[in-house]
């Protein structure tokens, strides 16, 4: 296979096709509509199902039903559309059926705008739907990684009978990069034991998220936690850059992570020992790895395109051992590497307090950037 | 080392496609490359720009504040990007639509009437290739041959009949830039 110049949205769609997706449900929303558009052409031509529903609420429930047949199924949307899917998602979690979702995040809350954002971190990583469940969440930072993680998402969903999210943003969706698609996998013809596919002459299967007796729900919740423990033990993913001797370690995921890479390289050119830790699995979060890093780096800088949602998870990992500062752009504004470089150089000069809230310190520094007047 | 190029103009002037041609050529020549458009609710008649980064190592940010070069196809793009080009960089200005001169003296300015040159070639939609040719004459990040090959391999099938005239537009732009007093 050779590399092609691919747009992120189309690359993720084609990756799903090649991973053997059997049914796609969706509803158009910028900045991920090219994904749905690609599916509308590809899947019917291959004799598979493409269905544009009348709304995101309908689409997620169609996904739920299709997932119960054991088919490889997926849905994609962008932030406001994902919010509409949260009830159905919780039912999917409670029924323990595998699904893949792609969220190409945009500026919010509310209708917001269509520019790139990472504002859905808490919603996706820490829940969203009601009840006690843990989705696997993967965050690509390039078109190639978006392809690889989309394929992986199907495998993980089935391995753990879990919800798997791929969270991108408008930048990754709209960007073109050279990337290699995987070979076409055949659509499978055998389905898992639990699948509901008609029971003529077989034992009756039953899938539901209803456990009327709390003691049964308690067991179901505990079972899901047992599965999650296996996920935590086996599915941590991250990438490290220049960390061997890094005194300042930047932590960022997705687009913010790759922008930070440019800043880190420029800091190195200026003699500052900077490095980058880029979480790829946001859930399970690489807690132990970050804790290890905090033992040999002096300061952390967390960079996000939200008000510090991952920052809380980083603080949980570092446990106050080393000082952390924070930098962000909000509402669909993407930081330039220059901004992050300035932060690295500042941190290299200044003492950062161990105590106090990094978010509050950032707000103070950031106010002039948006001409904020008190 | 990386080279960043912003191509900006009105929707319909071919700024995004010119960037894609560059990106295809960079990929086929074995470089790392990113192409990212400005995308928004505006389409026809609005502004359109893209950033292309060509490098020989993994590319970090696909967007830069200060590009090495910019092609500005209209006045709003000149106003926006002229101050941002790095010192020593290249600015290609479409004088067909821009009625002022550039202010910067620490960059290489190329003033070129790409609309008129494209019309002389018989198709005003070739203006983007004229501008790209002019840029490459001053910023040899890729050779004209490599970009031509990008066109050959990636021009959409329905436009293949325009291949030769697209190549000609690239060369005409390059020749103009090399002859022009900058």
Q: What does this entry look like structurally?
A:
The complex is a heterodimer of chains A (about 375) and B (about 180). Chain A has two domains: about 5-235, Rossmann fold (3-Layer(aba) Sandwich); about 240-370, Rossmann fold (3-Layer(aba) Sandwich). Chain A has a seven-stranded mixed sheet, with helices on both faces. In chain A, strands 9-11-10-13-14 form a five-stranded mixed sheet, with helices on both faces. The longest helix of chain A has 21 residues, at about 215-235. Chain A is globular and about 75 Å long. With about 375 residues, chain A is of the alpha/beta class. The model of chain A has no long low-confidence stretch (mean pLDDT about 95). Chain A has 14 helices and 14 strands. Chain B has one domain (about 1-180): Pyruvate-ferredoxin oxidoreductase, PFOR, domain III (Pyruvate-ferredoxin Oxidoreductase, domain 3), CATH 3.40.920.10. A six-stranded mixed sheet of chain B has the order 2-3-1-4-5-6, sandwiched between helices. In chain B, β4 (about 70), α2 and β5 (about 90-95) form a beta-alpha-beta unit. The longest helix of chain B has 17 residues, at about 165-180. The interface of A and B includes residues 115, 170, 263 and 336 of A.
Could you provide a short overview of the structure?
The complex is a heterodimer of chains A (374) and B (182). Chain A has 374 residues and is of the alpha/beta class.
Task: Lay out the secondary structure.
The complex is a heterodimer of chains A (374) and B (182).
Chain A: E1 4-7, H1 8-18, E2 23-26, H2 33-45, E3 49-52, H3 56-67, E4 73-77, H4 79-84, H5 86-95, E5 99-105, H6 121-125, E6 136-138, H7 143-160, E7 163-169, H8 170-174, E8 176-179, H9 214-234, E9 238-241, E10 248-251, H10 254-269, E11 274-279, E12 281-283, H11 287-293, E13 299-304, H12 309-318, E14 324-328, H13 337-349, H14 358-366
Helix pairs in contact in A: 1-2, 1-7, 3-5, 10-13, 11-12
Chain B: E1 2-10, H1 15-28, E2 32-37, E3 47-55, E4 69-72, H2 75-81, E5 90-94, E6 108-112, H3 114-120, H4 127-138, H5 144-154, H6 163-179
Parallel strand pairs in B: 1-4, 4-5, 5-6
Antiparallel strand pairs in B: 1-3, 2-3
């Amino acid at each position: 296979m050779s590399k092609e110049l691919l747009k992120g949205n189309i690359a993720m769609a084609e990756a799903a096709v090649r991973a053997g997706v059997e049914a796609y449900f969706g509803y158009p929303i910028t900045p991920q509509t090219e994904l749905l558009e690609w599916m509308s052409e590809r899947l019917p031509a291959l004799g598979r199902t493409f269905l544009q529903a009348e709304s995101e609420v309908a689409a997620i429930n169609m996904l739920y039903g299709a997932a119960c047949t054991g088919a490889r199924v997926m849905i994609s949307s962008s932030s406001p559309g994902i919010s509409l899917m949260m009830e159905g998602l919780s039912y999917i979690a409670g029924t323990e059926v595998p699904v893949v979702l792609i969220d190409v995040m945009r500026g919010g809350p509310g209708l917001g705008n269509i520019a790139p954002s990472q504002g859905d971190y808490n919603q996706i990583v820490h829940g969203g739907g009601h009840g006690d469940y843990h989705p696997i969440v993967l965050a690509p930072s390039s078109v190639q990684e978006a392809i690889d993680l989309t394929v992986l998402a199907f495998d993980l969903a089935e391995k753990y009978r879990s919800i798997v999210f791929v969270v991108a943003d408008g930048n990754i969706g709209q960007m073109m990069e050279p990337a290699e698609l995987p070979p076409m996998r055949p659509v499978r013809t055998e389905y898992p034991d639990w699948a509901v596919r008609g029971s003529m002459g077989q034992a009756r299967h039953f899938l539901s998220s209803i456990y009327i007796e709390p003691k049964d729900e308690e067991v179901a919740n505990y079972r899901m936690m047992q599965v999650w423990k296996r996920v935590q033990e086996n599915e941590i993913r991250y990438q490290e850059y220049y960390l061997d001797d890094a005194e300042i370690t930047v932590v960022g995921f997705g687009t913010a992570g790759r922008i930070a890479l440019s800043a880190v390289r420029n800091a190195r050119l200026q003699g500052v020992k900077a490095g980058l830790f880029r979480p790829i699995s946001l859930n399970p979060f690489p807690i132990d790895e970050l804790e290890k890093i905090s033992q040999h780096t002096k300061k952390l800088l967390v960079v996000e395109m939200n008000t510090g949602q991952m920052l809380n998870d980083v603080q949980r990992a570092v446990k106050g051992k080393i000082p952390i500062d924070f930098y962000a752009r909000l509402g669909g504004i993407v930081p330039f590497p220059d901004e992050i470089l300035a932060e690295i150089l500042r941190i290299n000069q200044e003492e950062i307090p161990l105590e106090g809230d990094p978010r509050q310190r950032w707000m103070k520094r950031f106010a002039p950037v948006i001409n904020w007047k008190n | 080392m990386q080279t960043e190029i912003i191509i900006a103009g009105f929707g319909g002037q071919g700024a995004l496609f010119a960037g894609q041609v560059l990106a295809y050529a960079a990929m086929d020549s074995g470089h790392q490359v990113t192409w990212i458009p400005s995308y928004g609710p505006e389409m026809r008649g609005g502004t359109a720009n893209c950033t292309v980064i060509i490098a020989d190592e993994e590319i970090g940010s696909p967007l830069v504040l200060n590009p090495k070069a910019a092609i500005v196809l209209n006045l709003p793009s000149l106003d926006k990007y002229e101050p941002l080009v790095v010192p020593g960089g290249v600015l290609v200005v479409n004088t067909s639509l821009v009625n002022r001169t550039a202010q910067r003296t620490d960059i290489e300015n190329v003033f070129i009437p790409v609309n008129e040159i494209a019309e002389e070639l018989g198709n005003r939609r070739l203006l983007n290739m004229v501008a790209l040719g002019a840029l490459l004459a001053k910023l040899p990040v890729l050779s004209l041959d490599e970009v031509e090959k990008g066109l050959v391999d990636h021009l959409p099938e329905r436009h293949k009949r325009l291949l030769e005239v697209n190549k000609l537009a690239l060369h005409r732009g390059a020749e103009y830039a090399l002859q022009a007093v900058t």
